[in-house]
Amino acid sequence: MNPFTNQSEDSFPDSALTSGMRNSALEQLEKTPFPVPEEEVWKYSKIGELDLGVFSPSLQSPSKEADVKSFLDSNAGESGLISVLDGWITASGNDEYYKNSEINLGPLSKINEELINLDERLHKPIDFFDCLNRSYNPETLVLHVPDDVVIRDPIYIKVQAVTEGLVSCPAIFIDLGRNSEVNIVEHHLSDEGSYLTVPVLNARIGENSRLKHSVLQSLGKTTWQVSKQNFYLERDAYVETFTAAFGGNYARSEIRCELQGRGAEAHSRAAYFGSGEQTLDFRTFQKHGAPDTTSKLLFKGALDDDSRSVYSGLIKVLPEAIRTRAQQTNRNIKLSDDAWAESVPNLEIETNDVVCNHASTVSGVDTEQLFYLESKGVETSIAERLIITGFFDEIISKLDDPLLVEEIRLKMLDSLQRHSRAES
Amino acid sequence: MTSEKVLIIEDLCVKASNKQVLKGVNLEIRPSEVHAVMGPNGSGKSTLAHALMGRPGYEVTSGSITLDGVDLLSLKTWERSQAGMFIAMQQPIEVPGVKVSDVITEAAVISGLDPEKSLSLLHAEAKNLEIEDEFIERELNVDLSGGEKKRNETLQLLVSNSSYAILDEIDSGLDLDSLALVARRIQQATEDSQLGVLAITHFSRLLEILEPDKVHVLVDGQIVETGSVDLASQLEEDGYQKFLK
Predict the structure, then answer these.
(1) Per residue in A254-311, pLDDT tens?
(2) How far apart (Å, rounded) are the C-alpha atoms in residues B58 and A168?
């Protein structure tokens, strides 16, 4: 029997508005078929191996955290740590900090619904996992930044899957007014065990506002994840999205940037390191819907052992989006003969007067670079380590949060050391 | 028993891109000696340099290379470097995201040297070569001019504590002042640290400062004549015509 039916709606802290949204999502979910690998958007994925029947929805807030450490645990700064367990918001940062600040952060029930106009601003679910998230997300975490408010300190969110056999459906909604600025860092983690996480982030970036959003994904090696991030940019809005992916059995990130206002600008970067039998799957959509918009995407990955990666991206330029500038680059280094990387960049341009380009590569470690470093006295495995960390440097060096940078460097080093040990 | 300090190349034959490029090269270089190798394009000069360092794509088909009694051909590239060989490449490879200081640090650690000392030496030598400090933190050979790349190679040589340096057209890309500066520092190293040098070049200007003990003419994979520094200036005037069949 499908455990994902609407019997569970009483479990969640709904208002009339969210209850209505949940019910229509549940109805849609029942009508939406589970995806199959034959569909273009699921090509190369492992979706055929996911048995949803072994998972149940998370209907109550778990009583304890996962037995895994996060770099944020002792470092969340003045704003405090926001914690989401199995999709439930269990901590909303430092109350004092938020009382004195002009931003509104917390579960939707504590935010004035009219303030954010969620109903209108959240876009309709478009596929099975959208519907699943909206049906079973306990409560949306809302971050609302009013006009002219600039928050420089990063806001840290720890998102964990803690109860085996459950689907967790965290939902975050970021709403930036005009001329505002905020920087968000999410850490997604889970223990070893059977988990499915379906996080959805929606962000509206108002006129002339700036959002920096980073995710470090270090899920356990048996966790499945299908994650979605949707960024909607108004006039002259600016977003920088970043994903570092290390964990998961099958971890998929769909990242959508819709440039809806003139002059909007989106930068998307990702660094991923696959090992063991993992599949890391990225689907991106850069949609230009207004003139003078810019989007730049750079995804780089290293694949070790039998791991696989998929990059599939589309740049779409609508007829009205004249003077669009768009770039899409995906580069992969295979560290083992059995690793596999698929890279599929796409352009769909419906107007002239645009500058768009895309590029993708899959190769081994550059033997010329290796020779150069070795000829200067650097041992092979260390030369390889320098080349790989150098390869990612183009992305990591753009991050301005030292905590996040340090954690990513440590994770890279750890993966590379495991690689060298396996080689020797 | 301690071996005599000498780099011996004996009857070296090397294939590259399926073609026999070197056809029996013999050379002996002792500490502090400077040997120049000149020759027309395609005669095998760079192949000799690459084969000495074990670059992939260069297959030694026969002959031997011995460094102070050690069989160099049995060593990997990094082991050859650690054994005392250095190559200043004609076209140094770009390694994005990796800095000169990273290379110096890692190489020092492998040699059992104090990386801090190597790094201060790096800064001191950079000063000698009139290289800005910020250069040391730049990505290796990325967006550098030809001259900057060559000065960077020289900088690494001077910090490396090597016994023998192969200079593959170190003079190309350098302006006259920089060339003089680089050549003087290398010449000084032949005196101060008994550096042996194998300089591949087309021009006698480098040799005026390096003062080679011997000048060899390499034609079609073999050394066809060996002479003093005067041979270099003669070659620059007359070309290689008389050596070509």
Answers:
(1) 999 999 999 999 999 999 999 999 999 999 999 999 999 999 999 999 999 999 999 9
(2) 56
CATH number at residue B62: 3.40.50.300
Please provide residue A282's backbone torsions phi and psi, each rounded to the nearest 5 degrees: -120, 130
Q: What are the chain A neighbours of B78 within 8 Å (beta carbons)?
A: 374-375, 377-380, 383
Verify whether the Cβ–Cβ distance A383 to B87 is below 8 Å. Answer: no
Strands (E), A246-376: 250-259, 265-274, 279-288, 294-303, 308-317, 325-334, 340-349, 355-363
Domain of B158, in residue numbers: 7-243
Domain count, chain B: 1
Using CB atoms, pick whichever of A367, A369, A380 lies closest to residue B95.
Answer: A369
Gap between the terminal Cα atoms of chain B = 46
- Report yes or no on B199 lying in a domain: yes
Q: Are strands A195-197 and A223-233 parallel, antiparallel or unpaired?
A: parallel
Residue A139 near residue A12 (C-beta atoms within 8 A): yes
Chain A CB within 8 Å of residue B53 CB: yes
Cβ–Cβ under 8 Å, residues B206 and B171: yes
pLDDT tens sequence across A173-190:
999 999 999 999 999 999
A348 DSSP β-pair partners: A316
Query: What type of residue sits at position A76?
Result: A
Any domain includes B139: yes
Max Cα-Cα span within chain A: 69
Distance from CA of A386 to the nearest CA of B (A): 6
Cα of A370 vs its chain's centroid, Å: 33
**Residue A247 token pair:** 């964990």
Give the separation between CA A105 and CA A79, rounded to whole angstroms: 11
* Out of A371, A390, A397, closest to residue B98 by CB: A390
Rounded Cα–Cα distance for residues B76 and B45 (Å): 21
Q: CB–CB of A218/A188 below 8 Å?
A: yes
Q: Please, which pLDDT band fits residue A1 given cuts at 50, 70 and 90?
A: very low
Which residue type occupies B25? V
Residue B145 has phi, psi (to 5 degrees) of -75, 165
Decide if B71 is inside a domain: yes
Is the four-CA dihedral B195, B198, B202, B207 of positive or negative sign? positive
As a whole-number percent, the residues of chain B with pLDDT over 70 amount to 99
User: What pLDDT score was predicted for residue B1?
Assistant: 46
How close are the terminal C-alpha atoms of chain A, in Å?
Answer: 50
Is the pLDDT at A101 greater than 90, yes or no? no
Decide: residue A163, CB within 10 A, 0-12 exposed, 13-18 middle, 19+ buried: buried
B172 is written with which tokens?
Answer: 């190309």
Tokens read off for B196: 């042996």
Phi, then psi, of B99 in degrees rounded to 5: -105, 160
Amino acid at the residue A281: D
pLDDT single digits (tens) B22-61: 999 999 999 999 999 999 999 999 999 999 999 999 999 9
* Domain regions of chain A by residue span: 6-365, 366-424
pTM across the whole model: 0.93
In whole angstroms, give the CA distance from residue B104 to residue B94: 16
Q: Which residue of B has its CA nearest to A371?
A: B55
Give, for B47, the enclosing helix (H) or strand (E): helix B45-53
